[in-house]
Specification:
β18, α15 and β19 form a beta-alpha-beta unit. Among the domains are: 175 residues, ANL, N-terminal domain (Rossmann fold), CATH 3.40.50.12780; 75 residues. α4 packs across α9, α5 packs across α6 and α11 packs parallel to α13. The chain is built from 15 helices and 19 strands. The chain is 34% helix and 24% strand. The protein is globular and about 65 Å long. The chain has 432 residues and is an alpha/beta fold. The strands form 5 sheets. It has an 8-stranded mixed beta sheet with strand order 4-5-3-6-7-8-9-10, sandwiched between helices. A 4-stranded antiparallel beta sheet has the order 11-12-13-14.
Length: 432
C-alpha cells in the first residue's frame, strides 16, 4: 500500500472503514503477504531435510547478492578472505564475522532502500537502516500466523495500545481493523469511550505494549463498576503482547484480575528474527521463513535473508539467550537471559548486574502492591528506584523491606512517581 492510500484509509470513520476488512491483505499491503502466508504453511509441512535445504538456499542467496551488490560486504569479507565463500553447510556460513550496530551504521551511509527506519532499542543505541518494499507485507503474514494460535483473524476487531499520540481518545484504523487508544491521555478521561466501544462493537482482542495495556487496566480497575468490568471480561478473548518483554507480574495481573489469555512474541525493528511463545513459558520458537537466528557466545545473532535493500548478515541483537538446539545445531527455542546488553547496572566493584535478573528474577514482595518499578543509574554503585503506586501509598521503609537486594553491593534511593516515565514511543522502559 502506498503512503498516500495508507494515510487516506486511516482517516476513514468506522462506518465506512469497517467495509475495508473484506479487502484481502495482499491488496492492502502487497503480494508478498499472500506469498509468505502460503510459504509459512508449506514450511510447517517440510521434512527436516527440506527445512535445512530451504535455510541454506536463503543464506546462499543473501550472501551472494550482498557480495555482488554492496561494496560494504565485498570489502569486509575480503579482509577475512571470504569474498567468494562456498556455503555448502551451516559451518561455512558460520565463518562469516558477527557484526554489531556500530559496523552497520557505516553500511547505512552507503545504501539507499525503499524505506528508512530507525530504532533506539532498549540499549539506547540509535540505529538507522533500510527495508525493502515487501517488508511489512511479510511481517504481517508472519504476525497473523502467530495470532492465529489465539484464533485471531484479520476480520476480528482489535483495540490497540501503543505509543501513538492521537488527537482523539480512540480512533479507528481500517488497514488493520483496529481501534487505537490514546495512551497519553488519563484513563479516567477515556474509559467511558472504551466501555461504549465494547458495547457497540465486538472487540475481542487487545494488542500492544504489555506495559501500556497493564497500565490502562490497572488504572481502570480503580474507577469502573462491576457491571462495566463484566462488559469487558465477557467480550475480550486474548491479549496480543508485543514490542516489549512481557514481565510476569503484568501478565499474571491481566490473567488473575481480568481473566485475559495472551500470546507474546520476540522481534525487533531490524526484522532479522521473529519468534513466538506458544504456551506462555517464555520459550520463543523462531520462524525460519522470516530470518535466521543463531547463538554465538550467548548472544542472539540474526540474519535478514528476505531484505535485499539492506541485508543484515550475522547481526548481533545484543540479547543474551539460553537456547535449545536440534541435531543440526539450529535453534528450536530460546529464552531471553538478560535482555539487551545495555540493560544492566554496575555495583560498587563494577560488576554488571542484569536488570531482568535484579528486578524480575528475585520475585520482590513489592510487586504485590507496586504497579511499576523503574531504575536509573548515573554513577557506579548508586541506583535510584522509581516506584509508581496507582492505588495506595506505602512508606519508603516498607518498600525497602520488600525489595530483595541481598548480596548486591549498591547504594540505592527510593523515589515515588504518580505515573511511570514513558519513552518517546510510549513504552515504559525498565532502565531510564
Amino acid at each position: 500500500m502506498n503512503i498516500f492510500l495508507k494515510n487516506l484509509t486511516e482517516k476513514l470513520p468506522y462506518s465506512i472503514g469497517s467495509k475495508f476488512v473484506w479487502v484481502p491483505f495482499q491488496f492492502r499491503l502487497g503480494k508478498q503477504y499472500k506469498i509468505y502466508k502460503k510459504l509459512i504453511l508449506q514450511h510447517l509441512n517440510y521434512s527436516e531435510e527440506q527445512k535445512y535445504d530451504f535455510l541454506l538456499d536463503r543464506l546462499r542467496n543473501i550472501y551472494s547478492y550482498s557480495v555482488e551488490h554492496f561494496s560494504f560486504y565485498r570489502e569486509l569479507y575480503g579482509q577475512y578472505g571470504f569474498s567468494s565463500l562456498k556455503i555448502i553447510d551451516l559451518k561455512d556460513f558460520e565463518k562469516l564475522p558477527v557484526l554489531n550496530k556500530e559496523t552497520f551504521r557505516e553500511f547505512t551511509k552507503h545504501v539507499d532502500g525503499y524505506l528508512k527506519l530507525n530504532t533506539g532499542g532498549t540499549s539506547g543505541k540509535p540505529f538507522s537502516f533500510y527495508v525493502d518494499k515487501g517488508a511489512f507485507a511479510r511481517e504481517w503474514a508472519h504476525m497473523h500466523y502467530i495470532w492465529q494460535i489465539k484464533n485471531y483473524s484479520p476480520r476480528n476487531i482489535k483495540i490497540t495500545f501503543r505509543g501513538k499520540n492521537i488527537s482523539e481518545n480512540i480512533v479507528y484504523n481500517p488497514v488493520h481493523n483496529e481501534f487505537i487508544v490514546n495512551t497519553y491521555k488519563p484513563v479516567k478521561t477515556i474509559y467511558l469511550d472504551f466501555i461504549n466501544l465494547l458495547k457497540k462493537c465486538r472487540v475481542e482482542y487487545i494488542h500492544g505494549y504489555p506495559s501500556a495495556i497493564y497500565n490502562f487496566f490497572k488504572e481502570l480497575e480503580q474507577i469502573i463498576t462491576l457491571e462495566e468490568k463484566s462488559i469487558i471480561t465477557e467480550v475480550i478473548i486474548s491479549c496480543l503482547l508485543g514490542s516489549e518483554y512481557p514481565a510476569s507480574y503484568m501478565t499474571e495481573y491481566l490473567k488473575k484480575v481480568w481473566g485475559f489469555d495472551y500470546i507474546s512474541w520476540y522481534g525487533h525493528s531490524e526484522m532479522c528474527i521473529l519468534a513466538y511463545d506458544p504456551i506462555n513459558t517464555m520459550d520463543y520458537v523462531p520462524m525460519y521463513t522470516y530470518g535466521f537466528p543463531e547463538e554465538v557466545n550467548g548472544h542472539l545473532i540474526g540474519t535478514s535473508f528476505n531484505n535485499y535493500d539492506m541485508p543484515l548478515i550475522r547481526y548481533d541483537t545484543e540479547d543474551m539467550v539460553e537456547t535449545i538446539k536440534d541435531k543440526r545445531g539450529l535453534i528450536s527455542s530460546f529464552k531471553i537471559k538478560e535482555g539487551r546488553i545495555g540493560d544492566f547496572i554496575l555495583d560498587n566493584s563494577g560488576t554488571r548486574i542484569p536488570l531482568t535478573a535484579l528486578i524480575y528474577g528475585r520475585h520482590h514482595r513489592i510487586f504485590e502492591y507496586v504497579d511499576f518499578i523503574q531504575v536509573k543509574q548515573e554513577e557506579k554503585g548508586e541506583v535510584v528506584f522509581f516506584i509508581t503506586l496507582l492505588n495506595e501509598r506505602f512508606s519508603k521503609k516498607k518498600i525497602i523491606e520488600n525489595i530483595d537486594l541481598t548480596n548486591i553491593d549498591i547504594d540505592f534511593q527510593i523515589k515515588f512517581l504518580n505515573k511511570p516515565i514513558l519513552s518517546s514511543s510510549g513504552k515504559i522502559k525498565l532502565k531510564l
